[in-house]
Each structure stands twice: as structure tokens, then as C-alpha cells.
Write a structure and sequence with these properties.
Layout (H helix, E strand, L loop, with lengths): L3 E3 L20 E6 L7 E6 L6 H13 L3 E6 L16 H18 L5 E6 L1 H10 L7 E5 L11 H13 L19 H9 L9 H17 L7 E6 L7 H8 L5 E7 L12 H14 L7
Parallel strand pairs: 3-4, 3-5, 5-6, 6-7, 7-8
Antiparallel strand pairs: 1-2, 2-4
Helix pairs in contact: 1-8, 2-3, 3-6, 4-6
């Protein structure tokens, strides 16, 4: 599947507070059309350092075969965007998601629209849900929502100090910290070999992710969109307990699934087909509100 570049004019991004790329920046959009009749549409938001196709290609092909159209942008500041390596801020990312959801709703007014967010994308999806996101359901996958009282305040303070003192320093772990995102070595090799992939965050980006988790945790109690949350028991990036603490406060929550053999990259793990199936079933069960 060749990525389709779609000039989405994201006018709301002009209001972003953080240093951000030019408003109206065209985002690379990876698209997998539904086979046969379009039964539902997915807007898929990737995680930090990722791209739309790296995160979702295999899953999207499975969903496409079931009549689900999938759109996965490279989010602002990542992937093939002109602003790659420039952290855009939570506001800009959330506003982009809202604008894209409205764009898709206008093109698909009669079928369910489900927003899926992985890791950072999950935090963005939840934050955007409180800012006018068009969605009939949300799927939060290993989501970066464990902020507020779910986050150790020492981590927040350390991230803030590092962002102020050495904002552009990239943290590699120095060989002391190794985080394994998945049990699928081919998926890891593909990401590492892709020049669009960003592996090591800067201090500024790390603090941006903390701000995102705090925002997501703060808005969780007002999100009424039906929300399914998925976690892997072997996730080394976020702990299920932290995520569950925030997920339980979402009024629209309809389910929480913990995969015993799942890692952070649930859509790319060796057991990923099971996750693709579960998410596809949930998407196809979503319903447009009467009169929607």
C-alpha cells in the first residue's frame, strides 16, 4: 500500500501554544480502503516516534478485509512530516485529531467512525474527545493516559527540570535501561531500519508526554464516548495498573482487556491477530447515534 498524501488544512493548529510547525501543514496520510461496502471507518493515531504505516499496516489490512476503511496519519512532528523532530505540543496534536475526525465524518456521514490511539496516540485521542472529536467510539491501546495522581510526582518534577535545563538532549538509556516494546523481532527491526522512526526522545519531548498524560487524566471524567481500553500484561512502557486507574474514570468506558501475552506494541506482537480481531469486532459493533 502506497501512502496517500492528503492536504488536510488543519486550521485549528494555528492556536497551539507550544512551538509548532506551520498551521495548515499537510500530513502524510496512510489509507487502506474497505474491501467491498464500507461498513465503518477508523482514524488511527500512532505513538511517539512512530508513523501511521509502521504502527498500523498489518492491522489495517486485516480490518480492510472486513469492510473497514482505515486512515492513519503521520502526526505533526513525526514520520514524514516537514516538522519531524519538532514537538508540536498537546494542543496542536489534539486539534489535528479533532480536525481530521470532522473531515472524515463529512466524507462518511452514515457509517460508524471509530478513533483508535496507540500509546501517545491514545492520550491524544482521549484529550481530543473532550475538545469536540467526532467519534462513535474510542479504542485506547497501551495509552499514554497515566497522568495526574496515577503518575509518580517525582517523575513529573524530573521531567520538568530536564526540559528546562537540557531541552534538546536525547535520552538513549546509555545501555542501562532497555525497554522491549514487543516480542516480535521483525517489527522492531523494521522500525529501527526506517529513517522516519524516532527512537530516543529529547527532554522536551519527554516532558511533553508527561503533559499529555496529565491532560488525558484530567479530561477522562468528562469523556462519554464509548471507550474500549486494551493493555498488554508485559508492557514495559506503561503499567496496566496506572492506566487502569485513569481508564476507570471515563464515564463512557465499555470495557478493559488485559492480554497476558501482550506487550506495548499490541498491534505488532506475535499474538497481534487476536488483537486485530477483537478491535475489528468492536469497531463493527459501533453504532451511529439516531439522527447522527
Amino acid at each position: 500500500m502506497s501512502p496517500v498524501r492528503l492536504a488536510l488544512l488543519l486550521l485549528l493548529a494555528a492556536c497551539a501554544r507550544a512551538p509548532a510547525p506551520t498551521p495548515g501543514e499537510a500530513l502524510p496520510l496512510h489509507y487502506w480502503p474497505a474491501r467491498g461496502e464500507t461498513r465503518a471507518v477508523i482514524l488511527a493515531l500512532h505513538g511517539f516516534g512512530d508513523t501511521g504505516d509502521l504502527a498500523y499496516e498489518d492491522a489495517a489490512r486485516a480490518w480492510s478485509a472486513r469492510g473497514i476503511a482505515v486512515y492513519a496519519p503521520d502526526q505533526r512532528g513525526f514520520g514524514g512530516t516537514a516538522s519531524r523532530h519538532d514537538w508540536p505540543g498537546v494542543d496542536a496534536l489534539a486539534q489535528d485529531a479533532v480536525a481530521m475526525s470532522h473531515h472524515l465524518r463529512a466524507h462518511y456521514p452514515d457509517v460508524p467512525l471509530v478513533v483508535i490511539g496507540h500509546s501517545m496516540g491514545g492520550g491524544i485521542a482521549l484529550a481530543a474527545a473532550a475538545e469536540g472529536l467526532e467519534a462513535d467510539a474510542l479504542v485506547l491501546v497501551g495509552p499514554a493516559i497515566a497522568g495526574g495522581d496515577a503518575l509518580n510526582p517525582l517523575y513529573r518534577t524530573a521531567a520538568r527540570i530536564a526540559a528546562a535545563a537540557v531541552p534538546e538532549r536525547r535520552w538513549t538509556g546509555g545501555g542501562l535501561i532497555t525497554i522491549r516494546p514487543t516480542d516480535n523481532p521483525e517489527a522492531i527491526a523494521r522500525a529501527v531500519a526506517d529513517p522516519r522512526h524516532i527512537g530516543d526522545p529529547t527532554s522536551r519531548e519527554l516532558y511533553g508526554l508527561v503533559e499529555l498524560m496529565d491532560r488525558a487524566a484530567a479530561v477522562a471524567p468528562v469523556v462519554t464516548i464509548p471507550t474500549l481500553t486494551l493493555m498488554g500484561a508485559r508492557d514495559e512502557v506503561l503499567t496496566p495498573a496506572q492506566v487502569r486507574r485513569v481508564e476507570e474514570r471515563i464515564p463512557g468506558r465499555v470495557g478493559y482487556v488485559l492480554y497476558p501475552d501482550g506487550w506495548h506494541w499490541l498491534f505488532r506482537d506475535l499474538q497481534a491477530p487476536r488483537v486485530w480481531q477483537d478491535v475489528g469486532d468492536f469497531v463493527l459493533s459501533a453504532r451511529r447515534p439516531s439522527g447522527g
